[in-house]
Amino acid sequence: MAATAGGNKIRNAKLVLLGDVGAGKSSLVLRFVKGQFVEFQESTIGAAFFSQTLAVNDETVKFEIWDTAGQERYHSLAPMYYRGAAAAIVVYDITNAASFTRAKKWVQELQAQGNPNTIMALAGNKADLLEARQVPAEEAKAYAQENGLFFMETSAKTAINVNDVFYEIAKKLLQGQQVQNPQGGMVLNQRPPERTVSSSSCCA
Amino acid sequence: MDPPPNPNPNATDAQPQAEAGVRLAALSLRGGRDLPPDFEIHEHHLDDDDDDDDDDEGYLTAASRGGSSTCAWKGLRDDDRDGDGDDVSPPSPSSSGYAGERGSSLDDDPDPEPAQDWPRNKKHLDEDDASSSWRKRKKHFFILSNSGKPIYSRYGDEHKLAGFSATLQAIISFVENSGDHIKFVRSGKHQIVFLVKGPIYLVCISCTEESYEGLRGQLELMYGQLLLILTKSVNRCFEKNPKFDMAPLLGGTDAVFLSLIHAFSWNPAAFLHAYTCLPLAQPTRQAASAVLQDVADSGVLFALLMCEHKVISLVGAQKATLHPDDILLLANFILSSESFRTSESFSPICLPRYNPMAFLYAYVHFFDEHTYVTLLTTRSDAFYDLKDSRSLIQNVLLKSNVLIEVQRSLHESALHVEDLPIDPSSQSASQPPQSSQDMSSQSLSSEMAIGGPAGLWHFIYKSIYLDQYVSSEFPSSISNQKQQKRLYKAYQKLYASMHDKATGPHKTQFKRDDDYVLFCWITQDFELYAAFNPLADKTQAIKMCNRVCQWVRDLENEIFVYGESALSWQYHHCWGGK
Ligand SMILES: Nc1nc2c(ncn2[C@@H]2O[C@H](COP(=O)(O)OP(=O)(O)OP(=O)(O)O)[C@@H](O)[C@H]2O)c(=O)[nH]1
Ligand SMILES: [Mg+2]
């Protein structure tokens, strides 16, 4: 899926966000893509699609982001969105222990059903709400290490570490070349080939 | 379970009766937490602010979030009427195995944790059936399971209404168990209407003087909205576990139901079972329809271009027809969920009239604040194709100035009764089809002071063949919301009485009361509902109605959508598959 354009590589990478209702998935994406934060972000329906490019050194990663809904009724549809993903960000809310438990379940599911090459990040969101913290950073960090995830505490509200998570993922993608091994089978990552061509030609 | 004393032996068709109040009291099975004892004694609220409570605050801004709290079910304990303790255990949403219509391979989800409780203050979560404010609400809607578990309540926290829910369940189940169906109970100005849909019960308690048929139709739409979100396969969860707690599956959808309930009092589509179109010049609409048709030919089941609640164009794949109720529910779902406006999205959605069992996948994209395209497909892997289709559509809309015309129409093209042509037949003969911006300029304004000619205030015209309606703007005499809602209520009543199966469909009805003269005229081709000022002369009014019909026919190319495959629908009276 990589295209070369004037020596500048553009990689398309499918990225999915998973996590409990209200953990802040949409808020993180909106912060990253639009630089915005809204206090009363509405619960996501199904899944919302965004794209955003990120330059890493002389290379460019174009993220195709699936912001999934945390609502229970959509859980059975999650594979549709995470299958073939190059990267996944599992989000929990540091002020809500139940959301951390839920995050671990998502990690398990990804390990069991997802693409083994998927780069996984664990984001402890709402890091601005320290006084309400329920999940110790050390605990999450230890869990992330055991499971080969990289971990950051983020705040969509203050923007702390938000771009960093995506940047870290982009770097890992470029190092690991996982992008070039899309899993066979399903769905959302399959693009008509012209698309890559057109994106490279417009950057030439 | 011990059946409660039979509340009403003739419940199949509970008639309004003098002793209904006594009966209602008899329904109060368990003291304080059951039917509020003073349900029948606060009628004095009705007179002044009759309408303003039917669809009040918060339906648009409600930032609703679902999720059950871990402790919310404590309230159940004292209502564990069956004496079996199952109810008390904390909810385990994950045990539902609810998987929509996806394959079994996807069933093995990890167990989700109960989500955090979000403030949903717009629906008065502090209230329950013990609060006087709750009891004074003029129109309640409840959804509950046949085991008595609350699923949805318009007011108050569902969890706190467990006892009340159990009472409703007892009433319904008792009658059901004796092989009968309870339709409604009346008590003074209160009416309790029931709708049983398999394991799901819907109840409306209202003192709004709406007809039984009208309220029942509203419950049908509530059920349709629920199916749109979950499909009918949710019934399987009840087969596996009769005590299944369904409320968490509707997490975050309060705004959807609130906005539907609001629509009951402002949107004629809710009782007419027809949709309305945005007026547009024919070439403009054709440009939009042509590109939607191309998209439909490439494997999309339905393609809809809408502006708010009005259809700009819609196209279905071969033989696929879209029921007006599905359009209403789909538009309501999309417009009441802020989520769709944030970015393009791809979500499972069920069209209950099309197929209540299965999900379709909906690609939704807003071109501007009001205008959005919805592409529906059966393929879960179609996102990128639909995204490409959307670019195609967008290019055509921009090139043909459709979006600009839409904005213009939104502000200018409404039908005003003042514009009713004096002699429409001669006018239509001499004039070519007009572009949308001309539509409001062909006016005669001498009779402005009293609305349209001969005291005509307002009308709704429904084309039976097209399943579409058009309505005029409200005149200055019906300028505030309260008056508008009152008029719609009067239309709803008229609609119900015209379609009353017992007395046969009526052809015309002329009704005079303090507020207006109402006239209804039904033929094979159309239904016309018109309101005149209360002093209007009957002969004149009938003349005006003829003129309205002629006017509508003259404008039909601009105010209606004509599909190549006319999307009319053979009317089905029950939800498919049942
Ligand atoms: N203080 C604070 N609040 C946040 C932060 N991120 C999100 N929120 C708030 O948390 C709530 C939920 O955020 P969302 O982004 O909608 O959560 P989500 O994970 O997308 O939820 P679903 O779409 O329902 O699955 C919103 O009211 C946000 O304003 C954060 O970093 N700090
Ligand atoms: Mg979200």
Automatic annotation (TrEMBL), chain A:
A Pfam family of this chain: Ras
GO cellular component, one term: endomembrane system
Keywords: GTP-binding, Lipoprotein, Membrane, Nucleotide-binding, Prenylation, Protein transport, Transport
PROSITE patterns found in the cross-reference section: RAB, RAS, RHO
Membrane topology: Lipid-anchor
Localisation per UniProt entry: Endomembrane system
GO biological process terms, semicolon-separated: protein transport
Record keyword Mitochondrion present: no
Record region (Disordered): 183-204
Primary localization class, coarse: membrane
MF annotations from Gene Ontology: GTP binding; GTPase activity
Family as reported in the entry's similarity comment: Belongs to the small GTPase superfamily. Rab family.
Name this polypeptide is given: Uncharacterized protein
Automatic annotation (TrEMBL), chain B:
GO biological-process terms attached to the record: protein targeting to vacuole; vesicle-mediated transport
Function: Plays an important role in membrane trafficking through the secretory apparatus.
Organism, scientific name: Panicum hallii var. hallii
Similarity annotation: Belongs to the MON1/SAND family.
Biased composition (Acidic residues): 48-58
InterPro entries: FUZ/MON1/HPS1_longin_1, FUZ/MON1/HPS1_longin_2, FUZ/MON1/HPS1_longin_3, Mon1
Signal peptide extent: none
Domain annotation FUZ/MON1/HPS1 second Longin: ranges: 299-391
Compositional bias per record (Basic and acidic residues), positions renumbered to this chain: 31-47
Protein name as it appears in the record: Vacuolar fusion protein MON1 homolog
Domain FUZ/MON1/HPS1 third Longin: 455-554
Feature: compositional bias, Low complexity: 424-444
Region (Disordered): 1-131, 421-444
Residue ranges constituting the FUZ/MON1/HPS1 first Longin domain according to the UniProt record: 139-257
Highest taxon listed in the record's lineage: Eukaryota
